[in-house]
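Appendix B, example 12.
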Amino acid sequence: MADEVKSYSDSKVFSIWKVLLPVAIGLTVVGLMFWHDAKKENLAEVWHHIQFTPRTWICIVLAFLCMFGRDFGLSWRFRALTDHQLRWSQAFKVDFLCEFTSCVTPSAVGGSSLGMVFLNSQGIEFGRATTLMITTLFLDELFFVIFCPLIVLLTPAHEIFISGGGAFVHGIRLTFWLVYAAIFVWTFILFTGIIWKPEWIRKVIYRLFQFKWLQRWKASATGLADNMVATSKELRTKPFRFWLEVFGGTSLSWISRYLVVNALFLGFLPAENPHQWVIFAREFVIWVVLMVSPTPGGSGVSEWLFSEYYADFIPTAGMALILAIFWRIISYYVYLIIGAILVPEWVKKTVTRIKESKSSSSAS
């Protein structure tokens, strides 16, 4: 297992170019959008008219506090999942490392891809860490499965998906429901695999990956099936209070992330803006669509989607782009910086621990 962890710690996942790539993509797209919008309006004048009033600064601070709520929720969840074995400092470190991984990998991969390694580095046995990360994946997907229909039901369709019949609107709506359907199916598979009928799912996976054209993924698939069975054994012993706590942390983290946009709109646009609920509701659509973004951390796609999807609430395209930049700085670039600080230290400590483990094994 030490060799497996070492392979992750030495992996190119943390290479410099993977940190710079999403930054380059994001800056390129923002630059192109600035150039495009400059043809329509004077962006320098738009920036000049942005008033950094006390209310603006308070709302910027509030936006950062919302992101802290996101980190607090996930750290709380990590502590609950480990039966409070992790200290708060350790839980926050795992959270920041997972978020950094999300920033430098495509959205479909996510931060959970190395979460078990990060948990293992904090003293959680690797097999159990894998079990816990499968549980976090299930909880995140369950949040969307439950809340997306509720948000859609509580919000008029022409407001959450924007009125009009353009290709952009139809594309967003179609993508949202297709991705939601995929999330629903995946959540059902996870529920069946880790709670309801784990042995049944394992048999299906074993048989499915006997086919020749699926052989190359057999090892990964059977490993996932075995981990689901192990996860089920642990989760079936958990009381209902445990589920309330971990799902509460999950809900707090996602809702806090979405409220960042509300805080920015409150700070930069008129305080009497009546669309705060719709602004919040549209975040669900944006994040579901971003789940299929091919770029690291949704770079480029996020800025463009934000500017287009909230355009009807913002006076000018330039203002929309400036708000999108503030949103990405608070919810994305900050985590790139934190990760760039934490990762070298984490890799150094992990490699040192592995060498010490090997040395003690050789001596004995």
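Residues 4-12 have pLDDT under 50 and may be disordered. The CA atoms of residues 14 and 92 lie 19 Å apart.
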